[in-house]
Amino acid sequence: MVTVFVSAFLHIIKLEHQKYDLNKGSKLMNKRELIDLVLHETTSFEDYPFNGEHSHETIEWTAIKHLSNKKIIALIFEKDHELLIDLKLTPEHGEIMRKTRGVFPGYHMNKTHWNTISVNQTDVGLTELVNMIHESAVLTGK
User: Fold this and answer.
1) What is the 3-state secondary structure (H, E, C) of 38-95?
2) Is the pLDDT of residue 31 over 90?
3) Which superkingdom (predicted)?
């Protein structure tokens, strides 16, 4: 157990110091790194509620949920070899962000509040992505 914790902690430290240039694509983020980023930025846990043995889902959905209320902060998944994250934004912010390359109405979500970001194929920078993660955590934390 201690080894797993230390390993996860060291991975987070590495993630914090690694520079991702989402705008220029010089370092593509993988699914594990994106999951760790959201976990690091929020008080949350990782869950796989849609991928049970009897599920018909072909997409592996990673749900990042609040520790306090168990509501979903983010859904992370890969579709057609594309790393995607669904985040909840205010309708006004979502409308503005959808003018950015790589940001779309939420995939399988309420299109007014949820937005899908193609993490490695967007003009959204890392700082803005982290801000969007924080906004989603606030909006879903109520």
Assistant:
1) HHHHCCEEEECCCCCCCCCCCCCCEEEEECCCCCEEEEEEEECCEEEEEEECCHHHHH
2) yes
3) Bacteria
The confidence score (pLDDT) of residue 54 equals 72
Biggest CA pair distance of the chain: 45
- pLDDT, residue 22, reads 54
Give the HSE-up count for residue 124: Cα atoms under 13 Å, Cβ half-sphere: 28
Pairing of strands 62-66, 72-79: antiparallel
**Do 48 and 62 meet the contact criterion of CB atoms below 8 Å apart?**
yes
Query: 108: Cβ–Cβ under 8 A, 6 or more apart, which residues?
Result: 86
Class at the top of the CATH hierarchy for domain 2-140: alpha beta
The secondary element (H helix, E strand) that includes residue 115 is strand 114-118
For residue 7, how far is the Cα from the chain centroid? 21
* Tokens matching residue 44: 């949350």
